[in-house]
Structure formats: structure tokens, C-alpha cells
Predict the 3D structure of the following.
Amino acid sequence: MEKKVAIAGFRIAAAPDLETTRERLVFDLSKGLLDDLGITRDAVDNFVFCSNDFMDGRTISHVFIGPAAGGYMKDQTKVEMDGLNAMIYASMGIISGQYDVTMVVALSLTGSQASPYLYTDYSLDPTYDRQLKLLNELSAAALEARSYLTAGGYPEELLDVVAAQDLKNAAANPGQARRIDGVSRERIKGSPYYYEPLRELHCYPPTDGGCAMLLVSEKKAKELTDKPVWLLGMGRSTDIYYLGDRDLSTSLSAAQAAERAYAMAGIKDPASELDLAEIMSLFAHQEPLLAEAMGLLEKGKAAAAYEAGDTAVEGRMPINPSGGPLGAHPICATGLIRAAEAARQLRGEAGENQVKKAGVALAHGQDGVCAQQSAVVILGT
Amino acid sequence: MEETKVVTGAWELSTFKFNIEGRGLQLMLKHMKDRKLMGIKCHQCGTVYLPGPFYCRKCHIRIDEPAEVSDHGQVMTFTIGYADVRGNPLDEPRIAPIVKLDGCDSWIMGVMQGCAPEDVHVGMRVKVHWAEETTGSLQDMQYFVPE
């Protein structure tokens, strides 16, 4: 895809408890972002929100937060999925030529004010899955983890290795909510089981947070930033809801979404052409599972790649140099944060976690139990 | 026609909690004890909100300038309700006007008494009927009556 849409800037917030309101979080993120760029709401012509009515405790919940983002009397719509879908949707308004400047704001307060358990319970099929009282996001992920480990011939310890890399990166990233100093594989292995084989430190932490991102047309990019990050490709795919109708050892949705994004970006060999990937892996096993599905790691070779340091910040194929969602998962915002963290790398602003050569990056987002839906964007300088 | 089956369900919502903005509402409640209405004014566009938000919804800037609002105003629009908000019939019809208080830009909704449903009209002057004993709660402002 030609360079038509750029990320001009972004703001991220994440903590176990932000001690804020939805309105104030939206105001602080959006106002902060506009201040960073030296502009006001007058420069923005379209607003795309991403939150979840159920977790917001209100229906059509974005109508309350529109003005807090500066959206008074502007176009405002909402995507009720992961935030990477909001980014893709927002970019279409710019590609179509209708808008030049679009603010995307994604958020949830699922650390302090709404339970992620409740949210996932009510996302289940009410006639069978919910009645069983066996399935929730964690138990489903555990079934997926076992399936993946078995198919790949991997030991359970792979989960500790992946989590240790992510949590080490998260500890060095001030934008993360869960930051544990000197985290070790032993400490991770010593954390309690939730659902075997998944332990507490293999799973995302309930998080308050959000992300505001300003997407702009090529014309506006030149005016607003000297470090534009371009959207080069995007793709989405959705699998069947029912776990029994899917292959849980891999992710067809991630594979297809990535394939579509690669085709648009002209990428033929993702493992060699991409410089880093920010993957929405909510549980440790999902990171290598999704990376294999998207062609970033060779199938069956993930354990060796992690042990060899290929996926570390300084490795051949850095994965989640930000620390990924094991550091923070504000539901709805997490995929958008992946894109923002990828952009931070491409701008050379990732501090301790900066990947040396960062020219092209992948960001992945997901929705539904076991990544039923996947969204992928390719970003470049 | 294909057969369907009905199952009942309940949504357990008790684990929700909400942080709310306190300042504008606290300011309003504090002064209601003295039968005064205190809003917040935007220093940029001049809009007076009641209760006052922490930011101007139009200008997208933080605001914190208190502005007293009159307890007199006029009916901007109204409806006569025959059912409550969940659709249950009321014993008596209820007049529900939206009133623009003098010196305030936000319109506020309330119940109107001391007036027959057929006599209420848009533009009608009204005032707040305060509780005998005010305590600094929203109940201090009981209803509107004709001026």
C-alpha cells in the first residue's frame, strides 16, 4: 500500500488502578496527545472510540466520552472490538479521502472498576457454554495452551521462558502496568496455577488503561510530525466462535489476517523482512503460537528460537519488546497499544527496549476467546 | 416454522463500580445547603454548566471557575408523563419540564408541582421549591413551581 495514512502521535496509560474516571482518562490521553503535537481539537475532524458497553456499565457508552476527547460536534463512532480494529476502521476514513485527521481512543477500566471474569463469562454462548460453568477465558486459554504445547512437542517450561522474556521487557517499559524487578523463570514457575498449564505469571494482569492515537493523511503528516510512521498493510480474519470447531493448536485467524496484511505491504518473507512484532498474546503460550501462525517463527522451532535469544530485544526477530500484554491488558486498548508500541520502536524512542534496526514492524490484535478474531497491521518508516 | 425454545437468564451486575467526578457535584451540593446553585463556567467560551464538569465539553480545556446560578428560570420544554421510566403506569400524571435557570447554560430536568398539566407552557417562569430543611443533598431541590 502507498503511504497514505500515518501515525502522527500517541499516548498510552496503564496501571492496576488509575484512580480515574472514564471521562478523565479520555480527556488526559487526548488532550495530552494534542498538546504533544501543538494542536487543539480544531485540527481533528473525526473521532473513533473503542470500548465495551458491558464493561462501561452503560449502553452506547461512547456518547458520554466524546466531548472529553474533544469530539464536540464532530464525527464520532465506536468500534466494540479490540482497538487495532478501531485503528483499521479509522484509517479507512482517511484512505477514502473524507478525513485528514482522526483521533482513535480506546480504553477500559478492567483493573479497578469492572471484572474481566464477568466480561468473558457474558461473552459465552448462553445456552450451553455458560450453563456448563467450566469455560471462561482462562480455562479456554489453558485448553489452547495444552493443545499448542502437545502439537509442537514443547515442554511446559516454554511458558516460563516466554513469560520471563516478556516480563523482563515490561519491567523496563514505563508504559506497562505490571513491572516486576528481576523476574526469573523460577519465580514464574513458582506462581500459582490458575488452570493447568497456565500460572498467574503466564496470564495478563487485570488493567486500567487506554491509548489515544492520531492518524493523519500524507498531507497532514508532513505538517504535524517529522517522524511519521506509515501504515503499509492491514488484514483481518475471524474464526468460528465454538472452540470445538477450531484447531486450538494454532490460530487460523492470525495466519489469514497476517497473510492479507503481508500481501498489501508487499511482504514475501515476514521472518526476514520484519524487524519486530508486537503481538497481542494474553497468555504466555499465545506469543509463540501466534508468531508461528503469522510466519515469524518456524513451526515446531519456537522453543529453540526463544532459548537462542532470537525473540529478545537484541535478537533476530524481536517479539513484544514492549513486554506485551503480560505487562498490561486494558481490554479494548491492548491491540491499539501494540501498534503504538511498534510505532515507538520505529521512531527510535523505545529507550532500554529499543530494537537496533527498526524499519518495518507488525502489530497484532485479537478478540474473543482464544483469538477467535485477529487483526494485523504492518507499519514502517 | 422451525421450533425454538425459551430459556430465562439474569445478568449479575453487582460487581460493577464506578469512579465519578466529584468536584462539580460537591461544589453544587455544598452550596445547596444555603439554597444556592453553584455551577462552573468555562473561562474561554463562557458556558456555565450545572453541575459543573472538570472540563468544557465544547472547548476541550480544563475549567474550575465557580459561577452562581439563579434558582429562577423558564420552561424550555416539558412532557406530561403517564408512566415511569420503565413503563409502569403512574397514579397521577407527572409534569416533567426542562428548565433553563437564569445565568446558566445547561438546562436541567425536574418535576413540576403547583400547576395543572393543562396550564404548563413553554416559556413559563418557574422557581426551585427548596426543602424545609436543607442538608446539602440533591433532595434539597425538591421540584419546580410557577414563579
Summary: Chain B touches chain A at residues 7, 9, 11-13, 15-21, 53-55, 57-62 (CB under 8 Å). Residues 83 and 89 of chain B are 4 Å apart (CA to CA). The helical segments of chain B are 23-32. Chain B has a mean pLDDT of 93.
